[in-house]
Design goal:
Elements lengths: L1 H7 L1 H5 L5 H20 L11 H12 L8 H11 L4 H30 L4 H27 L3 H25 L1
Helix pairs in contact: 1-4, 3-5, 3-8, 4-5, 5-6, 6-7
């Protein structure tokens, strides 16, 4: 579902959805969603994700076309709402990222490589992103085995407040 939505709304994702106000609103809204999902997290839920659950979680992933939504936040929250344990929800979320990330790379990387003469920095950046992503995934999976998602909720709220504050200051300065 995320691939279809990404293809359908690609132009909007690159223009209309880039508003700082919308990004901060989505940061706060997804913070609330993650907080609610985490509060009802199942500590004894199943490890197996059914085909129906996978489809519903995939639909949640499609919401991440709007910046600030958080692809992993949306998918983890939906998995928690469906009764999966924190660790299983996070693991499935990261596995679900593989096809959408590969698809985006197939579309965007050739454009990027055509636009630059030196491919070295692009390839080095991709490698660094992949390695740091793997380290972050390992850390998060070990973290959610024993802890909740509150730090991520707090981060989302703090970021949203910071952006709203900057927008207000800018508006006062310009107006």
């Amino acid at each position: 579902p995320a691939g279809w939505v990404g293809k359908l709304l690609d132009e909007w994702a690159e223009t209309v959805f880039r508003s700082p106000g919308l990004v901060s609103l989505m940061m706060a809204l997804m913070g609330l969603v993650l907080w609610a999902a985490d509060r009802r997290a199942n500590r004894t839920g199943g490890e197996v994700v059914s085909l129906r659950d996978a489809a519903v979680i995939g639909l949640a992933q499609a919401l991440a076309i709007v910046p600030g939504t958080s692809r992993s936040g949306a998918t983890i929250s939906m998995a928690l709402f469906l009764g999966h344990r924190r660790e299983a929800a996070a693991r499935f979320s990261f596995l679900l990222a593989l096809p959408i990330t590969a698809g985006a790379a197939l579309v965007k990387v050739p454009q990027l490589l055509r636009s630059t003469g030196d491919h070295g920095p692009v390839l080095a950046g991709m490698l660094a992103a992949a390695l740091s992503g793997l380290v972050a995934i390992r850390f998060l999976l070990s973290y959610v085995r024993v802890r909740d998602y509150k730090p991520f909720v707090y981060y989302r709220f703090a970021f949203a407040i910071l952006v709203w504050g900057l927008l207000l200051v800018r508006r006062a300065h310009l107006g």
